[in-house]
């Protein structure tokens, strides 16, 4: 493994990207899960797919575009999708969650249209859907590093505000914190991380890297800070083992990463049940 | 500045659709006042509080905070707030009591800044005031409703606000702790000269502790000191409140 890592640039790119998104995705995921916005991540990832399909389509007809990484198209669509969701939520005040299925289906719909118009792609669409160990170029990697740094700095800078917004939105507004602005920045960050993560985990599974590690850590963490740290640890374990497995078994990494995340989740559920509630007997019932 | 009222409300009207819940409200709350805002359900108490806090938009009339029109008032950290629902927050939230109380310093600290160095001291002081310092490392969702409510008071006072607004804070708190709770408010008012606005149903318990009383039932039926309030006959009081208020 180490030798292949030294030998192949594409593997280095994949692993560095994996390690980075293993931090950013779960960190944002903590806020997403706690604010019950997991579906937004899903909707945005589907919009990202349409962005990728659109750039591939452009690339097919204008050769100049084929040089441009579909990462940008995905990112652009993802951010636009985030803005649309926000707009939609303010239009349908009493049905805020309606924004999510609308944007999600629009994302898939557009994606399918672009793919059909292009009459299929020579590029491996499968890789975009489920991730790939060989898809990240060096230039992509630099963009990913840059975007991730911006995201992490923003999260550190707005940590207090994000905490209070997630914990008690009313109190946040009473305190005079610009909750709308914070929420807006947050949604943009989510859109960026989704676009950045999709090369490794794939569009269809990117939201799981934001939710599964958090679902696991929330069961055992005692504090908010611990929730974040544990989520990142679980995310990293899943990404690194997932990438190694994907490389050796020739499986799309999205699949292996998600399966390992799910395993971690199951282990924490079992661990928590017996560690913190020893009064539960072997049949899963309270002894009292 | 000494005579500038902390809160001044002038000719305030508010309606939902076509139904006025507040009509012609005029109130002045001064520094160091402990005002009990009482009235039956649907009397507009919470609406009035939400308007003062800026959670609802003023439709007609004016509200001044520290002499400034509400929309220009920026020093929100001067105001502490404890809401009605002990469970308005997301229960099951993985945060410690310490983290929750610390979040009360968010606005004061400012965007893109870390909490100040003496944060731990401030948080522990606030927790000591509500006698919950032993719970600092506990998860907020493990506590009882009454304990949580005390934590939310700690969150509201950690930034040392000048005005503390409490919207029916004792809902869901057991009787034994309600008294302790009011003792705590009285102490904050006396020792820190904190201005308090307490929305409550429970007039019998608070009447000996507050300095002023305002009776609201869409319009303001009475606003004055407790001494003036006590001069009112029982019949007048009943007509002020309608039903559903415990009268001593």
Global Rg of chain B: 18 Å
Biggest interface goes to: A-B, 27 and 31 residues
Give the percentage of residues in beta strands of chain B. 25-35%
Q: What is the residue-mean pLDDT of chain B, rounded to a whole number? A: 86
Oligomer state equals heterodimer
Give the percentage of residues in beta strands of chain A: under 5%
**Gap from first CA to last CA of chain A:** 51 Å
| Secondary-structure class of chain B | alpha/beta
CATH fold name of chain A, please?
ABC transporter involved in vitamin B12 uptake, BtuC
Helix content of chain A: over 70%
What is the name of the CATH class of chain B? Alpha Beta
Query: How much helix is in the residues of chain B?
Result: 25-40%
Per DSSP E runs of 2 or more residues, the count of β-strands of chain A stands at 0
Description:
The complex is a heterodimer of chains A (288) and B (248). With 288 residues, chain A is an all-alpha fold. Chain A has one domain: ABC transporter involved in vitamin B12 uptake, BtuC (Orthogonal Bundle). Chain A is built from 13 helices and no strands. The longest helix of chain A has 26 residues. Chain A starts with a helix and ends in a 12-residue tail after the last helix. The mean pLDDT of chain A is 88. With 248 residues, chain B is of the alpha/beta class. Chain B has one domain: Rossmann fold, CATH 3.40.50. Helix content of chain B is 32%, strand content 25%. In chain B, strand 7, helix 6 and strand 8 form a beta-alpha-beta unit. In chain B, helix 4 crosses helix 5. Classes of the chains: A mainly alpha (288), B alpha/beta (248). The interface between A and B is medium-sized, with 27 and 31 residues.
Brief synopsis:
The complex is a heterodimer of chains A (288) and B (248). Chain A has helices at 2-7, 9-34, 38-61, 70-91, 99-117, 125-130, 138-157, 159-167, 169-174, 179-201, 206-220, 224-249, 253-276.
Features:
heterodimer, A: 288 residues, mainly alpha, ABC transporter involved in vitamin B12 uptake, BtuC, 78% helix, 0% strand, B: 248 residues, alpha/beta, Rossmann fold, six-stranded mixed sheet, four-stranded antiparallel sheet, 9 helices, 25% strand, globular
